[in-house]
Amino acid sequence: IINLTEISLKVASGDIHQQIDFHSNNEIGQLSKVFNLMLNAIQTHEDELNIHSRQTERSLSQLNEQKLILDQHAIVSITDINGIITYVNQKFCAISSYMEEELIGQNHRILSSDQHNNAFFEQMYQQINSGKTWHGEICNRAKFGHYYWIDTTISALLGENGKPEQYIEVGTDITRIK
Which residues, 6 or more positions from 35, have their beta carbon under 8 angstroms from its beta carbon? Predict the structure, then answer.
């Protein structure tokens, strides 16, 4: 019982790499055997968690590298389903003349140029919300009033329930071409 108590205290403090030596098959021996089985199961789960943690870290690192490459080339923004901006990259800020702090928390309509009618946006959101990707050209108004055109692709980012939670827009400046 003293051995079981000492090892239990070590395990409670985080040292799960313990085993109880038992030599009898009485109730204490059976309790020790089950305790060792529990410790083995905990160690197995901890090992699996460590493997998954390393895989997650690698995936996150790869995702950050992909984001860096995307940010170097494209104009990127993310909004919630109500159009509130939650992310913009530096290219987005440069083309719109807004600072990131001025955009985050604002509705994407802050960039409205009034060059597109409601039917244009209704069709766009209908397509995105149906699970399809929308691609087209959008004219926006920058902070100081000038217009700029983006060849853009917009997709919904779906939540666990399969419904859109966010929209991501990736585009290229085509103002000179327009």
Answer: 4, 7, 8, 20
Specify which residues 168 forms β-bridges with: 78, 155
Predicted TM-score (pTM) of the model is 0.69
DSSP summary character for residue 168: E
Amino acid at 152: T
Distance CA 102, CA 21 (A): 65
Task: Please name the residue that has the structure tokens 């779906």.
Answer: 158
Q: Convert the pLDDT of each residue in 132-163 to its tens digit.
A: 999 999 999 999 999 999 999 999 999 999 89
Whole-angstrom Cα distance, residue 146 to residue 125? 25
Sheet holding 147-158, edge to edge: 85-88, 75-80, 164-173, 147-158, 134-141
Tell me if 147 sits within 8 A of 141, measured CB to CB: yes
Rg of the chain, C-alpha, whole Å: 28
Burial environment of residue 152 by CB neighbours within 10 A (0 to 12, 13 to 18, 19 or more): buried
- Packed helices 2-12 and 27-73: angle between N→C axes, nearest 10 degrees: 10
Between CA 150 and CA 99 the distance in angstroms is 18
